[in-house]
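Run folding on both entries below.
>entry_1
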Amino acid sequence: MRALALKIQPDILRAIKRFFNDCVSGGDGKSIYDLITHEFTHYFDDAKIKELTKVRERVDKFFEKYRSWTGSSSYFVIQLRDEGLARFYEYKKKEFFLYDKKKIYDTKEYIHEYHGALLMVDTYECGFYMWYTIALAYLFSKDRDRFNEMKAYYTGKDFLFFAEGLRSIFSKNSIYIQNLSNNIILDILKMAKKWSHLKFLKEYKKACEILDVPKDQIIITIDEYNQMKKIDYDRWLSEIRGAGFPTKGLKSE
């Protein structure tokens, strides 16, 4: 009898390996439920991921040909969208989550250094922060009373309520913030299925404006993304010129 082979998608296989490696090394406390929830969220989002995978594939092919990460700005924002959304749903059972301002500062520094430094960014957690911000702005517009009842705390201190203003919450280096209800999370998940990485960025910008998020804690702005794309373009132009291809009609933006 011919043996049956189970075909496992590469991202699922990597996640399984990571899970068992974490079990051996002590890991980060994640359960098999967390792992499965995260990975299956990608399949809920499958249609948009397939569309965005075409962008990833163009970046990969260019890298193989020129050994350069030209185009990695799009790759980076897609990772924030995809992995952040999966983490957003993975965390749905958490009553509170840790908001780590240092992680955001580090990310902004990597964005300014760009290219190789982007590999250092925790796109899972930073992407989650972005989706949470979008969802929180959605709640703010949908149910102000419920928004005002939301709260946060940090070690040894009393609760801070959102009604008192988010500035006091965002001023803490690390603070535990209350998670959103399953209804809000599912509403965002349904909308996200139709959002490209660019729509995701625009909605994040809008959410930051609604909530008055401090500028130094906005993970990535549209202007920063456009600057990254310009660096990509200029690098690509330099590389094809260096390879002897004609560049008439092409110019740096």
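>entry_2
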Amino acid sequence: MWVLVRVTALIAAAPILGSRTVPVKIKLGLALVLTMVLLPIVPKAPSVDPLSASALLITVNQIIIGVAMGLALQLREHLPNLIGRRHLADGFDLAIYR
């Protein structure tokens, strides 16, 4: 269950899959498939009552981790573009002042 929460949060925040143009059914299907692939690899989760406060904290923790992973993917996607724009602007500044 925790794997599904983390993978769903990751897909929701990922650069291409998190956009509004991708249908929700495709996002959920991909999350389910990735969860089934990752389930044998991930260590067994602690047994916690699903309606307890600790389960809520674990769920929020998994959502935060998944969103952070998605945001890291977005940063990886956009950082070269931002760096390139900054160097381009520096080049224009040098050309204007000379």
